[in-house]
Every structure is written in C-alpha cells, then in structure tokens.
Amino acid sequence: MTDRPTHPPGRLQLAVVGAASCDGSLEALARRVGRDVAAAGAVLLCGGRGGVMAAASAGAREAGGLVVGLLPGADATATPPNPHLDVTLFTGLGQARNVVLTLSAHAVLAIGGGWGTLSEIAMALKQRIPVVLLESWDLVRPDGLVDPLLRQATSPHDAVEMAVRMGELRREGRT
C-alpha cells in the first residue's frame, strides 16, 4: 500500500469549532488559537458566526491569516457572517454545513461548545480527521478507550501545535 495525500496540495486547513456565543474566557482562548493558526501559516475554517468562531476569526485576521467561513444560511440576510472573514461561503445547508466544514479540514480544533460542536467532533472522528479539544468535551469511547485521533490540549499554543502536527500527517496521507 502506498501513501497518498488525502487532500490536494496547498495550505494546511484547520477548522475551529465551538459555541456561537461564549464567555470572555473562551473568547480569549479562541482568539489566541486564531492567532496561532495564522502564525502556523494555516487557513482557518469556521462556521462563520459569532462566539468562538468570531473570536478565532478575529485572532487569525489580526495575525495576517486567511479566514474562511461556511455559513448555514443561503445569504447574509438569513445568516449574518462575522466581520472577520476573508471568504464567506453561504451554503444554505443549515446544520449540514458542519459536514462540509469538517471534511474540508486537515484537523479540527474544538473550543468549548455544545451539541453542535459535539456533532462536529463526532463527524470528524468518524471520517478519521484528527480533533484537538481545548476546554471542550471530555470524550472516552464506550469501551473505555480514547480515540488515537483525539487529543486534549491545555493551552491554545499546545492545541494549535497538536492540530498542525496531526493535520500535516493527514494531509500527507500518513494517518
């Protein structure tokens, strides 16, 4: 069996997922993650809305990064995007846009979040896309094991470092 890339050549794409509204602590974590994603030279993908998504987008833009938002609605009237996006994609898919978001990422960073974030984590792991958790869900499989593609980070820097390392392996077809 030969190694083959799972994505076409190009920049590393990291999805940041989390709640559409969050407290100041999670907002600060997300903003730092966004800055570190940009510093790593990766494209930040997100759901394009508020909360964790807006904070990570703002951090990435401040650091000169590229930010792509995949919004659930068909236009800005239905789904206002956050003001920190470089590329805005209106999907008209509602929550189904989470599938497009996770499948477009080499790795996913989950910051806080509720049921929508949990669904994005599950979709990513089901498709063998690495996930890094930061102040997010505490996940153990029913058999008591932790998925090898799931990591728990203790800081924004560690979260991005893990996501970059695991995302590069996926991009190169080595996971």
Highlighted features:
about 180 residues; alpha/beta; 7-stranded parallel sheet; 5 helices; 7 strands; about 20% strand; globular
Produce the secondary structure layout:
Layout: E1 13-18, H1 24-39, E2 43-46, H2 52-62, E3 67-71, E4 87-90, H3 97-103, E5 107-111, H4 115-126, E6 131-134, E7 150-153, H5 156-171
Parallel strand pairs: 1-2, 1-5, 2-3, 3-4, 5-6, 6-7
Helix pairs in contact: 1-2, 1-5, 3-4
Task: Provide an overview of this structure.
- This protein has a seven-stranded parallel β-sheet with strand order 4-3-2-1-5-6-7, with helices on both faces.
- The protein is α/β, with parallel strands linked by helices and 175 residues long.
- The relative contact order is 0.19.
- It contains five helices and seven strands.
- Helix 1 (24-39) runs parallel beside helix 2 and helix 1 (24-39) crosses helix 5 (156-171).
- The two termini are 13 Å apart.
- It is globular, with a radius of gyration of 15 Å.
